[in-house]
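Entry type: protein chain
Record version: 2
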Amino acid sequence: MDVHRNLLHPLRVYSLIFGLLFNHRVPAEGAEYASTYIVHMDKYVMPSQFYNHEHWYRSMFYSVKGVRANQNTHIEDLYHYTYDIVMHGFSAKLTQSELDILEDMPGHLMSFPDPVGKLHTTHSTEFLGLTPKLGLLPISQFGQDVIIAVLDTGIWPESQSFLDNGMEAVPARWKGTCESGTAFHPSLCNKKLIGARYFNKGAVAKYGDIDPTQDYDSPRDNRGHGSHTSSTAAGNYVDDVNYYGYTAGTARGVAPDGRIAMYKCVWETATSVALGSDVLAGMESAITDGADVLSLSLGSTPLPISKML
């Protein structure tokens, strides 16, 4: 459904109302530097004239930008995501003046500059005290049909860890999909890798378009971190694995009978970066798709409590 087509009529009314209430003048394009902000809203104060929260959020966004819906394609690109599960609100690129106006509007709770996260990894099974013979692993049948959403650098689907040998049909409750992109076709998914999406609006807004020499503009993993964490979580059994001829054995993930869905939200620039707006969008999508577990091997620079998401 194209939400934007239905915004025009009520938006004219509300743009006028907001304009009268706040009596502002938007700076000329380029007069101020714009940054991405995550805006936390109180969904329960949405006026009844709006038919859903995205309609309300977009009308506020267009109002502070001083335009009508679909009037300016460039402005449309500055609205990034709507959040309705992991939090209530949206992310968009705004100048400080526009943010000041938005923060005075009814329903606004708090705004955060889009944070940048970094990759982390731990020795998961040892940390959790999991063993293959006793405890949670055998009780859970090694994660049979548990759907694990991994939010990371993407995935290398050709890895033997992601073969679906011996796996039954994908659980009927799964609503996700595999998106196409650079060097990634939906046919690469199977009964092990059941979903693959990518989210980069926050990264592109901050660093520019994805550099094809640095990363794939798709769910494909260029760094290897996402493939590593995915195989650690739910990689299938791979026989005859060794390290340069030593310590031969069988490799597997913590939950080898589980399913993997990749939500790529970490991108290669000069280093690996995860913008908060992209991570939230990935979490929102994973929950909507029906994931049972969210796996994030990410962290950020310590922030004051008032600035934490």
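Comment: The longest strand covers residues 34-41.
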